[in-house]
Amino acid sequence: MYILGIESSCDETAAAVVKDGREVISNIVATQIAEHRLYGGVVPEIASRRHCENIYQVVSAALEDAHLKLSDIDAIGVTYAPGLIGALLVGVSFAKGLSLTSGVPLVNVHHIAGHIASNYISHKELEPPYLCLVASGGHSHIIEVSSYTKYKVIGRTRDDAAGECFDKAARTLGFEYPGGKFIDAAAKRGDPFAFSLPHPRVQGSEYDFSFSGLKTAVINLVHNASQKGEEINRDDLAASFQRTVCEILVGNTIKAAVNGGYKTIAVAGGVSANSGLREAMQKACDEHGFKLYVPSLTYCGDNAAMIASQGYYDYISGKRAGLDLNGIATLPLDKISV
């Protein structure tokens, strides 16, 4: 079964064809990073306009690379939530047009569920149930994945997402957008114990995250040093910051796995590409005898292969979308229904 996936929730216009939820036949991503880098972050209006300009060519290229016609496609999976509303509407509208003109069924896919499914592409043997940490620029969740279409969010950020915190700390340190990869590279050169940074906790919610205070601590360190004419070792601060974020993410996830009786953990989302997080999570899983799954680097960031993969499981479960499908900027994963 061939699923065409379409993703446009933020600043990547993407389309892919995936067979039976696991085999990637084609995967096309048109990135806007260079343009948004001029502004230090994603500009929603620009992102929406670029999606309009790129989506036809991207979808056409995905079908061409797969050596398939639209009539060969069994279903169209499209990201409908959450994300930038203008960006989402481009993908949703295009997918509805394709479905209407071709008669190919339409399936609405939740973006976070797509990130979780990125591990199905990278690891053919992975099956629910398991615990998944989803960490990206807009999301930080600990999720119980009880089946391919059923989820329970047991931990989430109360303010900034981990990826957002990476980007803001990176900007303060003078790195380009997006800052995660620059922090990761600098951390390899620095001393991770040079600075003592806060580990914020949410009282009464042991699995929830809070990264705003950590971000503020980095900003204050840099600004105070600048006002005093002092120089901060950028690599040391990057390494200390990355260590702290990873300790928070790994600590809460392992605690949730132990308390929930899980032996299998997955990590997904853009921050799953971070080498420090991968190493720290692997070490913790080895210590507890857990099996760890992380996606290939190709599928850590936003892409349509993960949407097509999840679209397959949604489709075979009976999920369908009509022409009244709309984009939704904010929608908790555990509030969706199949």
Question: Nutshell version of this structure?
Answer:
This protein is of the alpha/beta class and 338 residues long. It has helices spanning 33-37, 44-66, 85-102, 111-122, 162-172, 180-189, 212-227, 234-260, 275-288, 304-316; strands spanning 2-7, 12-19, 23-31, 75-81, 106-110, 130-135, 140-145, 151-156, 264-268, 291-293.
Class from helix and strand fractions:
alpha/beta
Q: Helices and strands, in N-to-C order? A: EEEHHEHEHEEEHHHHEHEH
Q: Segments where pLDDT lies below 50 for 5+ residues? A: none
Tell me the count of domains.
2
In total, the number of strands is 10
Structure description:
The protein has 338 residues and is an alpha/beta fold. The protein folds into 2 domains: 2-116 and 299-335, 2-Layer Sandwich (Nucleotidyltransferase, domain 5); 128-295, ATPase, nucleotide binding domain (Nucleotidyltransferase, domain 5). Helix content is 44%, strand content 18%. The chain contains 10 helices and 10 strands. It has helices spanning 33-37, 44-66, 85-102, 111-122, 162-172, 180-189, 212-227, 234-260, 275-288, 304-316; strands spanning 2-7, 12-19, 23-31, 75-81, 106-110, 130-135, 140-145, 151-156, 264-268, 291-293. Helix 2 packs parallel to helix 3, helix 4 packs across helix 10 (304-316) and helix 5 (162-172) packs antiparallel against helix 8 (234-260). The protein is globular and about 65 Å long. The model has no long low-confidence stretch (mean pLDDT 96).
List the helices and strands and how they pair.
Layout: E1 2-7, E2 12-19, E3 23-31, H1 33-37, H2 44-66, E4 75-81, H3 85-102, E5 106-110, H4 111-122, E6 130-135, E7 140-145, E8 151-156, H5 162-172, H6 180-189, H7 212-227, H8 234-260, E9 264-268, H9 275-288, E10 291-293, H10 304-316
Parallel strand pairs: 1-4, 4-5, 6-9, 9-10
Antiparallel strand pairs: 1-2, 2-3, 6-7, 7-8
